[in-house]
Amino acid sequence: MALRPAVFKHLIDALSHRWRQAMALPIFTLALGLYGFTLAPSVVTLFDDSLEFQLVTYQLGIAHPPGYPLYTLLGWLFTRLPIGLVAYRVNLMSAVFGAVTASMVYLIGLELTTASNRRDYDTRQSWTEVLAALIGALALIVSPVFWSQATVAEVYTLNAAFVAGILWLLVRRRQTEASRLSSPSGNWLLVLLFLFSLSLTHHRTTVLLLPAIAVALWRASRDWAYRLSLPGGIPQVGAKLASAMIAPLLLYLYIPLRGHIGSLDGAYTNTLAGFWRQVTASGYGIFIFQNPLGAERGADYYFSLFLAQFGPLGLVAGLAGLVALRRHRAWAITGIAFVTYFAFNLLYRVADIQVFFIPTFLIWAIWIGVAAGWLLTRLRSVSSSRLFWLQAPIWLAVTLLLIGQSVTLLWGNLPTLDRSKDWSVYDYGVDVVQQPMEPHAAIVGILGEVTLVRYLQTTEGRRPDLLLIAADQESQRLATVAHLLDEGRGVYLTRELPDAPTHWSLSAVGPLIRVNPQPVLEAPRTPYSAGSHLIPEIALHGYAISRPPAHSSPSPVRLSLTWQVMAPLTRELKVSVRLYQPDALADGGGRPVAQADAVPVHFAYPTTAWRPGEFIADGYDLSLPPDFQPGTYIPLIILYDPAQGAAEVGRLALPPLYLPIEGLEIKDQK
Predict the structure, then answer these.
(1) Which of 646, 647, 639 is nearest to 620 (CA)?
(2) Does domain 423-518 sit in CATH 3.40.190?
């Protein structure tokens, strides 16, 4: 009978520990809800790694160095989910691992805020620990850089999940006998080594955790030496350690096995030397030993970076949390990990250095939770009669202040980080493949633009006949165009190409630039005729009005112009297309509802290169304001000379047109 109170207490402590750990699930749900609500619906960028991952994971290809085999395989599983577009599914993977990271930060904070010498079960103390760990997790969830990476297809939330998992193994206190768990044959050590090795198949920067791991394992070194000295100790322990370390690294065999698919940029060669260059990412050393981008960042940059993530209160709380850990072994583990990552980032001179700070943001969020736990625990334990009646209000005020910092960051960053309606890049890609290009035409552009079209070909089956060629160097694009024209293909460019106007005639086809081997001398048919001269050398032959694909409301208006060149031009003129309300245009001083200015043919075909007698297709997209109202509008075309202070040289007002949000029609057209 004497044992029953002790057994009952043990049961209560166990249940208390379990429910506090189970709170990680609501944290996961909260983070996933936020990231899911602001998740990008499809492709959102052209010139970073996100678009590459959305295609590579779907087709099980090879990503840029070091290859990311684990991420690619996990991404392939997500692309099989029956929800949304393929790109959305890969974006969702980032949200899931972002939520996993947040729940791990909560668990780490819970371990560090739990009183190690607590003798009696105390419900209030348990709630204090949970609340403090929650405050730390919230700080990470709403930090702008981490949040931004949780809404697109990127590698950084999975890397953060590995960092958090390893740190949790290093700092957790709810373990069984220390001698068992610290032994080389213990499950804890094997899990740690396996997780660390697995992380290396995803992102190499986890090697920066090695100093912290070494510090955490140093105390167990004597026990290891004893166990290794036992008969058969070295072979048995060595086999287990080798298995835990080597087995995950076998994932890199994915790269030569899928070598026939290749990389999107064509840089990977399926040879031993090519494999070694890929997995070591040797080319990225230039950002450590040199500064190819000329990136110079002072102390003010790093201070502003952390301030933007956590706010002024979060900065103070993070420092206070580090101080509060000074007597805990996690002080050295988290502190060394923070310093190692921070020092590396000072040397790594890439453009997007902020994403490499995510592990340091993670650690700072842990420290914020520790500071919250330290402060709330001491406020709860105040016993002075003079302060007793203020205890609860002060405790509540501090809690609301710490949570309020995260809520403020959430509300302030939501408009810029909400990508749920960002369809612009996807709409651009659909606009490209919907153009009336002849069968088996070729599109030549830089890698990101071509990858977008290839994504639509591969995942949605759009225009599989198109030949896509990526060439980032202008000289390469020029030579490629010449070769394709010699083959008799129709050739389209995604952007302007210097020297092209000296060899060929150019025209706009939607957002693309068609390369014409010879000037177009036959008048094309247009929906609406104009036959009006803006200046003696240039006449507007005709025009068309359409709406390009767009998820936005109101969708843009595309005005396609067909110029007729009457005589050579010696001035480089620009075109301004504007949309006016009739009253505003009549007044002469009204502001246009929408406006687009450019060198003709998407900046690709200056007027000085125009040939007399040719017809040139040109196009301008007018983005309508959010408060656009249906009604009658007048398009105005202006030619002006930028070399003469934007002096106007000619103008033409087109007939009025009626623009309802749902459609488009010409009104009073002769």
Answers:
(1) 639
(2) yes
Decide: residue 212, CB within 10 A, 0-12 exposed, 13-18 middle, 19+ buried. buried
Q: Please tell me whether the overall predicted TM-score, pTM, comes out greater than 0.85 for this model.
A: yes
Please tell me the distance from the alpha carbon of residue 132 to that of residue 136, in angstroms, as a whole number.
7
Same fold, 423-518 and 520-670: no
Which whole-number Å values give the CA distances from 276 to 196, 242, 272, 281, 318, in the listed order?
21, 21, 6, 8, 40
179: pLDDT confidence band, cut at 50, 70 and 90?
very low
The answer to whether 479 and 512 are in contact (CB under 8 A) is no
CA-CA distance, 556 to 619, in Å (whole number)? 13
CA angle 315, 370, 414 (to 5 degrees): 50
Question: What pLDDT, in 10s, does the model give residues 321-346?
Answer: 999 988 777 888 999 999 999 999 99
Residues 487 and 319: their CA atoms lie apart, in Å, by: 66
183 compared with 484, residue with greater pLDDT = 484
Q: Residue 531 has which token pair? A: 């036959």
**H/E element holding 666?**
strand 665-666
Classify domain 520-670 by CATH number: 2.60.40.2550
Please state, as a whole number, how many other Cβ atoms lie within 10 Å of the Cβ of residue 532.
Answer: 14
- Residues forming a β-bridge with 540: 532, 563
Pairing type for strands 631-641 and 657-659 reads: antiparallel
Q: Give the count of alpha carbons within 13 A of 287, CB side only.
A: 15
Q: What's the CA gap between 324 and 112, in Å, rounded?
A: 10
The domain limits of the chain are 16-179+251-417, 423-518, 520-670
Q: Tens of pLDDT along 555-591? A: 899 999 999 999 999 999 999 999 999 887 776 667 8
**C-alpha pair distances (Å), 393 with each of 123, 190, 566:** 19, 47, 82
Residue 150 one-letter amino acid: A
How, if at all, do strands 615-622 and 594-598 pair? unpaired
Tell me the pairing of strands 665-666 and 657-659. Answer: antiparallel
How crowded is the C-beta side of 37, counted as CA atoms within 13 Å? 10
